[in-house]
Design brief:
5-stranded antiparallel beta sheet, 31% strand
Length: 137
């Protein structure tokens, strides 16, 4: 007679998606915004990238796509993430991109702000765990 084993079935679940605006600075300088970050900016087609050298903060602000220094915002496949090509920006300001990091961002005067003095959560896979996101907030 077979004895019942104490196994349980694993039901794969997606990690909870953060409802806070978050920006990931990927390797090679691409910036990705989650859906709440994109929505906080008004779901723009283009943004401008700003940098506060003194306080080491990145600013992202919606602009008209025809603006000379505009960076187009493009969707990342079928996900709810949005990409901005930021390699020239990160190189110019000496922002390290050897390891991808994600920060919870905040809105201030119409600009999404990322404070690089904060450590951010290291992103090693497709999605960082919710615990790592909480560590940055």
């Amino acid at each position: 007679m077979l004895r019942a084993m104490p196994f349980e079935t694993f039901r794969r679940q997606r990690a909870p998606v953060s409802q806070e605006p978050a920006i990931t600075l990927q390797k090679r300088g691409t910036l990705s915004m989650n859906a709440p970050a994109h929505a906080a900016l008004g779901s723009p087609e283009a943004v401008e990238l700003l940098f506060d050298r003194e306080d080491r903060r990145i600013g992202i602000r919606a602009v008209d796509p025809s603006t000379e220094h505009a960076y187009l915002v493009r969707p990342l496949g079928r996900s709810s993430s949005w990409l901005v090509s930021g390699r020239a920006f990160t190189v110019y300001y000496g922002i390290p991109t050897e390891v991808a990091h994600r920060w919870v961002a905040r809105m201030d005067e119409g600009m999404l702000i990322v404070d690089l003095k904060e450590p951010g959560a290291e992103v090693t896979g497709h999605r960082t765990s919710e615990r790592a996101m909480e560590a940055t907030g």
